[in-house]
Design brief:
about 10% helix; about 130 residues; alpha+beta
């Protein structure tokens, strides 16, 4: 099977490295309407300035991850070193047929238009059209 295309090493994910989804910064639990209004104003100002605030998804860490949208998104937590999984926030995953380049969602495993069956290749794409980009 010399014709099999293998993924370049830069696209292969190291399964031994733990990846954690980031958590959106939770709002303060309070019944005080003044605190809620102030938090809403601060959050709106941060968003308009391009500042994004998340929490590390590692249950042993939980540190704040703060970055500006004009800068590169961090790929590891600066405190614990865990890889940050941005899927759902800024990245979406699809599967592609290596023969016809038809795109499928992540539930598909094979392209239905080829025989013998052709396994789909997983690919991560940047989300566009979001107010966060």
């Amino acid at each position: 099977m010399e014709n099999d295309k293998t993924k370049p090493t830069s696209d292969i994910k190291d399964k031994s490295v733990r990846r954690y989804k980031v958590l959106k910064r939770p709002s303060t639990d309070t019944d005080n309407p003044v605190v809620k209004v102030l938090e809403s104003i601060v959050s709106g100002l941060e968003g308009s300035l391009g500042k994004r605030t998340y929490l590390c998804g590692n249950p042993d860490c939980g540190t704040l991850i703060i970055f500006n949208t004009k800068e590169p998104r961090p790929i590891v937590c600066h405190r614990c070193g865990s890889e940050i999984d941005w899927e759902g926030e800024y990245i979406t995953t699809i599967r592609i047929c290596p023969k016809c380049n038809k795109e499928y969602d992540t539930t598909a495993n094979y392209c239905p238009f080829h025989t013998p069956a052709v396994s789909l290749i997983e690919k991560e794409l940047e989300k566009h059209g979001s107010s966060f980009l």
